[in-house]
Specification:
Radius of gyration: 60 Å
Oligomer: single chain
Structural class: alpha/beta
Helix content: 55-70%
Low-confidence stretches: none
Largest sheet: 6 strands, antiparallel
Number of strands: 15
Strand order of the largest sheet: 2-1-4-5-6-7
Shape: flat
Length: about 1000
């Protein structure tokens, strides 16, 4: 990376805008010089801040970089143009400040005009993309490209782990690390696979109850012999069972046909017995249907009677309404006569109102009101002047206090970016600690659970083995009993049921036989024991898998050496971050408060002057209002001069006049309304009387029609008609229809059953079924035995195949584990130097870096010192990347951390140059085109300083080297300089070559 142009705005000691054109620097090496505190280091801060959002040194955070001399409206901003691998980029970044958060934007300017093509925006995104482009993060950039003031020795004295991170990014050894991790993980998985295969073989042997697969093979041969004999028995018993089954089927068919005839005959007789009750139902339904024809006339008669009754009631109501309307009309006429008699009083009141209006026209009340308003305005203006003066003093004090608070709070808010960065790092570490503890707890719980499963597995194996032993014992007893029973039934000359031989020279001796029920019970117990064993075996495998997964998680999580200290640091960082956030929020509020106070202070100055002028005008208006009031008072009668006298008298007369007018109009209107209501009520009454007469005539005609219908239907009266109606007519009609259908169907079934039973005799089903049940039992027993032997053979054959496959897999995985273990041991550093594979590769890169660095270091130290990679092994940590220095004058080696200040500066500078040379020579993804060194030259003697400068000058063109120093010899030696000039109003760049 090589900077080409840098612009600083309101940054550090620079309150305005300054620009540095690095492209204009012809020489490879230039000097930044100026007084102490002028802002030389700020140039390097701006470079590091633009790239990564941090300062160039660890003691300067992003919040410290805003200029204290910049105006309130000035925006702190850094813009950096740089070249990298033939492309041009621009970064524009603003730190957190009042009214604005931390912002960053990255552009690709290659062939794209001024700003270029926007790549990414946002603080985190820009930081990540820059780290990807440079192959360095902010800390590593400060260790290799910018050597901050006072931190040179950290390059030499830093930990081996820090150097490992730098070298990994610079030389891109992630692939080597991935290969290393892959080999270690492969060995771990091979170990787990081997253990799993061994457990599988042991489990299969324990389940089968054998010591090897050969034992299972012998057991399979024995089962095959038993299965062959069982097949012959099963064939004979099957034929006997089929004959007995046919006889039973024929007997059952004959018995069923005879029974069906008996049932059909009984069903027909039962239905014929209900004939009398069914005829009665038919007669009742006929009467119900006749009553249904009369029902509409009854409903019409009832409706007509109700209508006549309602018409009579409405006629009576209409008559009462008419009488009430006539009474109201009489009262309204009397009220109208009374109001007409008050016409003289209404005329006198109208004349009085006119006279008062003439007096009010003089304007006495308006003049008095104007005078009162003028008095109030004068008092208000005086009060406003006093109040504004007090506000002016209060706003001035508030502005001074806000300014003081803003300055104090801004100092606390400036550390926010640094606090957020530190809090993020600590949060990540704390989360890892918590996750590791959580997983370790889960590992302990899983181990305990696996132990419990192991115990249950051992118990289930014992139960299954006991069930196997009991089954063999019961089977032997059962077989011995069967042999004795068969032998006892043998007769000389008669064929054996098993082998068919007519000779029996060696009959089996009778022995106490086991019951079949006992053997079946033991086998069921064995099956349950086997199911329980398989369940626990699956549970055991799952527990093993879960425990292995949790152990892998623990291994993948880094271990924190001091978690308590980490939590304390996190609490302190959290408190610092909270304070900074509160301060940052308060800054904006205080800035707004100060601006508001300033605006209010400015406003009150203008208001105070305006209100004083208002007071003068109010005094003049008060004098004028008093003169007008005296003039108009002289033109009004004495009794009406009092305050509100005219208005009161006018209001009283007007109210009385308005009340009389309203009463007259309401009485007139009420009289007209009452007359209209009387006419309407009389017409309504006449109409209702006519309707009542018509309804009575209709009701009489409906009574006569109903009486005629009852007589025609042979009902003596309405009560007889009511009695003929049936509530369950539909049910009776459905029941009668179903009875007719059932009787017809029963007669048809009886005829069919009589034809089917012709020539049949009742069989002895008990005898036939007994013979069949015995034959079936004999066949079932033989079939179960054959099935058991078949299942037993399949189980033994399956177990034999599984065990042989598991034994072969165990041998294969043992060979694989031997191979992966050797490779993983080499990858993780199981050697005398404790060098893992990736660190071994990095150590070779470091050797190359040191070789190039020593070329510079020997020149700088006059051939005295060289740097070496230390091969010493510390049992507590990995080696390979530690540094030692050899003193060629004394022939001794010691730790690089023991170098003096000047020697350490030379060594750190040589190492930085060696890194740059090595990276460039290997043409990797990193381009070390610039190096910036902040101070450190003052620790060198005259000869050492000359050798260091000569070495830097010999680095050649194409690489930019920027130096900051107060050493006078550098000003004389380096002609190209950037002058930083300090003044009371802030620093500026006076000129740059």
């Amino acid at each position: 990376m090589k900077p080409t142009h840098l612009v600083l705005e309101a940054f550090g000691p620079f309150p305005g805008r300054v620009a540095i054109d690095f492209d204009a620097i012809d020489d490879a090496m230039f000097l930044i010089c100026g007084e102490t505190g002028a802002g030389k280091t700020t140039v390097f801060d701006a470079l590091a801040f633009a790239l990564f959002g941090v300062g160039s040194g660890t003691d300067r955070g992003a919040a410290d970089l805003r200029s204290d001399l910049a105006g309130p409206g000035a925006v702190t901003r850094v813009t950096l143009d740089f070249e990298l691998a033939g492309r041009s980029y621009r970064i524009r970044r603003t730190p957190r400040q009042a009214g604005s958060a931390h912002k960053a934007e990255l552009y690709d300017r290659t062939g794209h005009g001024e700003d270029g093509q926007h790549l990414v925006g946002g603080v985190s995104a820009v930081k990540a993309r820059v780290s990807e482009l440079l192959h360095l993060d902010g800390k590593q950039y400060r260790q290799t490209a910018i050597l901050p003031q006072g931190e040179f020795r950290k390059v030499i004295t830093g930990s081996s782990t820090e150097r490992e991170a730098i070298l990994r990014n610079l030389f891109d050894t992630e692939a080597h690390k991935a290969l290393q991790d892959t080999l270690v993980e492969a060995d771990k998985q091979a170990g787990k696979a081997l253990a799993k295969a061994d457990t599988e073989v042991e489990t299969l042997r324990n389940v089968s109850g054998v010591g090897s697969s050969q034992d299972l093979a012998e057991r399979l041969g024995s089962v095959d012999e038993q299965l062959k004999a069982s097949g012959a028995d099963l064939k004979t018993l099957r034929a006997s069972c089929d004959l007995a089954d046919t006889a039973v089927d024929e007997g059952r068919a004959a018995s069923a046909a005879l029974q069906a005839l008996e049932v059909a005959t009984a069903a027909t007789q039962q239905l014929l017995g209900e004939t009398t009750s069914r005829d009665a139902d038919r007669e009742a339904l006929d009467r119900h249907d006749a009553a249904a024809l009369v029902k509409p006339l009854v409903s019409d008669r009832d409706r007509r009677a109700d209508e006549a009754h309602q018409a009579r009631a409405q006629a009576e109501l209409a008559a009462a309404t008419g009488e009430e309307a006539e009474r109201v009309a009489r009262e309204a006429a009397a009220a109208l006569v009374l109001e007409q008699g008050r016409s003289d009083e209404r005329k006198a009141l109208a004349e009085r109102v006119h006279e008062l209006q003439q007096v009010a026209a003089v304007g006495l009340a308006e003049a008095a009101e104007d005078h009162a308003k003028a008095v109030r305005a004068a008092k208000a203006a005086s009060t406003a002047v006093d109040s504004t003066a007090v506000q002016h003093e209060r706003f001035k004090a508030a502005h001074d206090a806000a300014t003081e608070s803003l300055e104090e709070t801004q100092k606390r808010a400036d550390i926010l970016d640094e606090a957020e960065l530190r809090m993020g790092v600590l949060d990540g570490r704390l989360e890892t600690v918590g996750r590791r503890a959580e997983v370790q707890g889960a590992v302990a719980a899983a181990a305990t659970s696996r132990g419990e499963v192991d115990e249950r597995l051992r118990s289930r194996r014992v139960d299954y083995e006991a069930a196997q032993t009991e089954e063999a014992r019961c089977l032997d007893r059962y077989v011995a009993g069967l042999a004795g029973t068969l032998a006892a039934a043998l007769e000389d000359g008669a064929a054996c049921q098993v082998c068919g031989s007519t000779e029996h020279p060696h009959k089996a001796l009778g022995a106490p036989g086991g019951r079949r029920e006992d053997l079946d019970a033991v086998r069921r117990q064995k099956a349950r024991a086997h199911t329980a064993l398989e369940s626990v075996q699956r549970e055991h495998a799952e527990a093993e898998k879960a425990l292995a997964a949790l152990e892998a998680q623990v291994s993948s999580l880094p271990e924190e050496k001091d978690p308590r200290g980490l939590r304390r640091d996190a609490q302190e960082a959290s408190q610092t971050l909270a304070d900074a956030k509160r301060a940052s929020e308060a800054v904006e509020e205080l800035l707004a408060a100060r601006q508001e106070a300033f605006a209010a202070l400015t406003r009150t100055i203008g208001e105070l002057e305006g209100r004083r002028q208002t007071l003068q005008v109010a005094g003049l208006q008060l004098t004028q209002a008093a003169t007008r009031l005296e003039e108009r008072r002289a033109r009004v009668p004495e009794e009406l001069r009092g305050p509100g006298a005219i208005e009161a008298a006018s209001a009283q007369a007007g109210a009385r006049l308005e009340a009389l007018e309203t009463a007259f109009h309401e009485a007139d209107k009420a009289s007209d309304t009452a007359a209209e209501a009387v006419a309407a009520a009389r017409a309504h009454r006449d109409d209702r009387l006519a309707q009542a007469q018509t309804a009575s005539e209709h009701a009489g005609r409906a009574d006569r029609e109903l009486a005629q219908a009852l007589n025609d239907a042979a009902f003596s009266d309405e009560a007889a008609w009511q009695e003929a109606q049936l509530a369950d007519a539909d049910r009776r009609r459905d029941a009668l229809r179903l009875w007719d259908e059932a009787l017809a169907e029963a007669k048809a079934v009886q005829r069919s059953a009589e034809q089917a039973a012709v020539g049949l005799v009742a069989p002895d089903l008990v005898l036939l079924e007994g013979r069949y049940e015995q034959a079936k039992e004999d066949f079932s027993s033989a079939n179960r035995r054959h099935g058991e032997l078949t299942n037993q053979r399949a189980a033994v054959a399956t177990a034999l195949a599984e065990l042989r496959a598991a034994e072969q897999k165990l041998a294969d995985r043992n060979q694989r584990r031997l191979a992966t273990n050797r490779l993983a041991g080499a990858a993780r550093g199981d050697n005398a130097h404790r060098l893992p594979f990736e660190r071994y590769v990095l150590s070779s890169f470091l050797d190359e870096v040191l070789a190039r660095a020593n070329l510079r270091l020997q020149k700088m130290t006059g051939g005295r010192f060289t740097l070496h990679r230390s091969d010493e092994v510390d049992g507590r940590k990995r080696g390979g990347l530690d540094l030692a220095v050899e003193d060629l004058h004394s022939g001794t080696r010691r730790r690089a951390a023991t170098l003096s200040g000047g020697e350490g500066f030379q060594a750190a500078l040589s190492l930085a140059l060696g890194l740059a040379d090595t990276v460039q020579a290997r043409s990797g993804g990193v381009h070390m085109d610039s190096l910036f060194i902040d101070e450190g030259f003052g620790s060198l003697g005259e000869e050492d300083l000359d050798r260091v400068l000569t070495t830097l000058e010999e680095m050649g063109a194409g690489r930019m080297i920027g130096l900051i120093s107060h050493v006078r010899e550098l000003r004389d030696r380096i002609p190209t300089r950037i002058e930083v000039v300090k003044s009371p109003t802030g620093s500026h760049i006076e000129h740059s070559a």
